[in-house]
Design brief:
alpha/beta, Rossmann fold, Arc Repressor Mutant, subunit A, five-stranded parallel beta sheet, four-stranded antiparallel beta sheet, disordered N terminus, binds calcium ion
C-alpha cells in the first residue's frame, strides 16, 4: 500500500528537541516524509507554505496555546491533527477533540501506538471524505437510505437513537468522538452533559452487536473522553 500515492507528508509541531528528533527518525523509518517545527509560529508558517497530509501537534508549546493553534489550522485547512498531551490532562484532550482534532496520544507514548493512530486517521480520511449512504465495517452494514442495519447478513432492530449513534460512530472510524459531541449530535445541545444517556444506549448497542467492551470489535471506550468506532483492520 505504501508508495501508492507517494509518501505521506507529516508536520510535527513540538518544542521538545529530543522528542522532535525521535519522531522525525522513527516516523521517517516508517515511510513518512516528516517536516518539523519547534514552535507554534514556525508551525503556522510551514502550514502556510507546505501541503501536509497530517499534523502532529504538541499541546504544550511555549509561544502559542495548542488549543488556539487547532482553531487556527481548522479555519484555513482540513488537515487532520493528532495532538500529543500529558497523560493527566484529560480536560485538554476533550477540548482538543471538540475543537476538531482527529485523535490524541498521551505522553509518554510508544511509537507503535502513534504510528497506528496516524495510519487509522489517514485511512479514515481516505475512506470517508464525506458520509456515504452505506457504511460497512467487517460484517456490519448500515444503510442510511433504507434505515437498516445488519450484522453478518442478519437484520438488527435498532431504535432511532441507537441508529443515529451507530451511524455517527461508523462515519468516523478510528476517531474518538467525545461524549459532548455525541450527545449534541444525537440528543441535541440541551443534553450535552447527560453522559448517562450514552452509557445506556452504548450498552444497548453493544448488546445488539454482540460486542464485548473488554475486547471491542466495534465500539471502544475512551474513559472520561468518549467512544471510538474501531477502524476495520486493513487487508493483509
Ligand atoms: Ca511541549
Amino acid at each position: 500500500m505504501s508508495g501508492e500515492h507517494g509518501r505521506r507528508r507529516l508536520l510535527v509541531i513540538e518544542d521538545d528537541t529530543q522528542l522532535r528528533k525521535f519522531l522525525r527518525i522513527s516516523l521517517g523509518a516508517s515511510g513518512f516524509a516528516v517536516d518539523e517545527a519547534g514552535s507554534g509560529g514556525e508551525g503556522l508558517t510551514k502550514l502556510g507554505s507546505g501541503d501536509y497530509d497530517l499534523i502532529i501537534l504538541d499541546l504544550g508549546l511555549p509561544d502559542v496555546d495548542g488549543q488556539e493553534l487547532i482553531g487556527a489550522v481548522r479555519s484555513v485547512r482540513h488537515t487532520p491533527i493528532i495532538v500529543l498531551s500529558a497523560r493527566a490532562a484529560e480536560e485538554q484532550k476533550v477540548r482538543a477533540l471538540d475543537g476538531g482534532a482527529a485523535d490524541y496520544v498521551s505522553k509518554p507514548f510508544g511509537i507503535a501506538e502513534l504510528t497506528a493512530r496516524i495510519r487509522a486517521v489517514l485511512r479514515a480520511r481516505r475512506e470517508n471524505p464525506g458520509v456515504p449512504p452505506q457504511l460497512e465495517a467487517g460484517s456490519l452494514r448500515l444503510d442510511h437510505l433504507r434505515h437498516e442495519v445488519s450484522l453478518a447478513g442478519r437484520p438488527l432492530k435498532l431504535t432511532p437513537k441507537e441508529f443515529a449513534l451507530l451511524a455517527l460512530l461508523m462515519s468516523h472510524p478510528g476517531r474518538v468522538l467525545t461524549h459532548r459531541h455525541l450527545l449534541n449530535e444525537v440528543w441535541g445541545e440541551r443534553h450535552s452533559e447527560d453522559t448517562h444517556y450514552l452509557r445506556v444506549y452504548i450498552g444497548q448497542l453493544r448488546q445488539k452487536l454482540g460486542d464485548d467492551p473488554a475486547a471491542p470489535r466495534f465500539i471502544a471506550n475512551e474513559p472520561g473522553i468518549g467512544y471510538r468506532f474501531v477502524a476495520a483492520e486493513p487487508p493483509p
